[in-house]
Specification:
Layout (H helix, E strand, L loop, with lengths): L6 H11 L7 H21 L3 H13 L5 E3 L4 E3 L1 H14 L4 E3 L7 H14 L4 H21 L11 H4 L1 H12 L4 H12 L13 H21 L15 H5 L7 H4 L11 E3 L9 H10 L10 E8 L1 H7 L7 H4 L3 H11 L9 H4 L2 H7 L2 E5 L8 E7 L4 E6 L12 H12 L5 H12 L7 H7 L8
Parallel strand pairs: 5-6
Antiparallel strand pairs: 1-2, 3-4, 5-7, 7-8
Length: 454
């Protein structure tokens, strides 16, 4: 067991000293899954107007053309590229979730590794390892402060996420242990993100900013900028700020390199907040039952983990963005449409009278005996009959994971919304054999979307 007084240095030592040969093949494979999933959702999200707003600001401000914004054919500074790609990776709320926390680790982490790897013409193996170590770092920090989420104030991804980007950057910049710990210090002091902004574009700005903060920290430390080397465990540090009474620093350093927490990170099967997923599963199953149709439903009763109600209850979402944070919308649109993808979270679907009418028929009960990936649903129909569905483990949870084949299908659909089919296939094959890539810039070129006709 490690001494909590050296937590930051222990994590820095792990990031700096871990060799690729020490990483099990199954963990390397998981790293590829995270990268494939992140690129898929980012490419699809480049169609969101939020990206152009950010690019317009970048264009007005200027900046050295050192790294690319995914899909856009737009090169900008390293920090800007990391920020833009971090935004894209979370805009659709369709990225990934680290269980049992509600951290989305890829968005603040992988874009940093991608920017540096593209600019440095580094290998796919370098990119993969740096991304993995960053993911492991941020997952462990999130695990240590996971009880923070019960306060429903801070966004886990905006706070713990800075350590993922910092770790990935420090690794690719070849830092020693002390400079890596300083990078954690400078990144950690920038951690932020308030849940009050959920349901707006700002939610995705949190991981974008976390990626930017982690990379900026590394670049400054590389120049000699100083910071604390005890940011995680210090009396006035990260854990004291975000989980003053509930932090468990042992989660960060114990069994580093032996137990890989990144294995509990999962691609999302649905484009909604993670705690709604068992409810979506339940509704997709119930819509197959005889007589179940929106016009026949009198009431919808559900039992869920209390955290679902605390974090994701929005009975009357006003926009598609709010709909992604509403378990009521996710479950009802799943029953009506038979799907829970980005198309189900537009302003039009949120205000659809059938969907809105069903949302108002939901009665929810919190039950601490029900796990976060479980739920019980009961529909009562107009003829008096009832149908009940128990979901033991939601699709995408560690006990019921998204398979490689399902991830491939998700990639083809999302990337295929902006790239030609042949290019999608080539890109996917390249990502599954990432260790053979000699220049990550080649991957970025494959991600470039054709110019749209005006």
């Amino acid at each position: 067991m490690n001494d909590a007084a050296t937590t930051t240095m222990d994590l820095a030592r792990f990031v700096v000293n871990t060799r690729v040969g020490q990483i099990p093949d199954v963990v390397l494979h998981q790293g590829k899954r995270c990268i494939i999933n992140m690129l898929a959702v980012a490419l699809h999200a480049m169609q969101d107007p939020a990206l152009q707003m950010l690019l317009d600001v970048f264009a007005a401000e200027g900046g050295a053309r050192r790294a690319s914004v995914l899909g856009a054919g737009f090169k900008t500074s390293l920090q800007n590229a990391a920020m833009a790609n971090g935004l894209l990776a979370h805009l659709d709320d369709y990225d990934d979730t680290f269980f049992p926390t509600v951290l989305h680790p890829s968005a603040p982490t992988i874009p940093v590794a991608l920017a540096l790897a593209e600019q440095g013409r580094l290998t796919g193996r370098d990119f993969l390892v740096a991304s993995l170590l960053g993911l492991e770092a941020t997952c462990r920090v999130a695990l240590a402060i996971q009880n923070m989420r019960h306060g429903a104030v801070w966004h886990m991804t905006g706070t713990a996420g800075v350590f993922g980007g910092a770790a990935a950057a420090g690794r690719l910049l070849g830092m020693d242990v002390v400079h890596m710990a300083c990078t954690f210090g400078l990144a950690g002091t920038q951690a932020s993100g308030l849940r009050e902004t959920f349901g707006t574009m700002t939610k995705a700005f949190h991981p974008a900013r976390a990626a930017h903060s982690g990379l900026l920290a590394a670049l400054l430390v590389q120049q000699g900028f100083t910071s604390s080397t005890t940011i995680l465990e210090g009396r006035h540090g990260f854990a004291a700020a975000f989980a003053p009474n509930d932090a468990d620093l042992k989660c960060i350093a114990d069994d580093l390199g032996v137990r890989w927490e990144v294995m509990n990170n999962a691609p999302k099967p649905y484009a909604s907040a993670i705690l709604s997923h068992p409810l979506v599963d339940g509704m997709l199953a119930l819509r197959q039952q005889p007589g179940v149709a929106p016009e026949h439903i009198i009431s919808i009763r559900c039992r869920v983990n209390p955290l679902t109600i605390k974090l994701e209850s929005r009975p009357e979402p006003a926009t598609g963005l709010e709909g992604r944070l509403s378990f009521q919308h996710a479950m009802t649109v799943a029953l009506v449409d038979g799907a829970c993808f980005p198309a189900q979270f537009t302003d039009a679907r949120v205000h659809d009278p059938v969907v809105a009418g069903l949302r108002r028929k939901i009665q929810v009960e919190g039950d601490a005996a029900i796990a976060q990936d479980q739920c019980e649903l009961t529909l009562t129909l107009a003829d008096g009959s009832t149908h009940t569905e128990w979901v033991a483990h939601a699709t995408g949870s560690p006990a019921n994971p998204v398979t490689d084949a399902q991830l491939d299908a998700k990639f083809r659909v999302l990337a295929g919304s902006v790239l030609p089919k042949v290019r999608v296939a080539r890109l996917l094959d390249t990502l599954w054999t990432l260790e053979r890539v000699t220049d990550v810039a080649d991957i970025v070129v494959l991600c470039r979307a054709p110019a749209r006709r005006r």
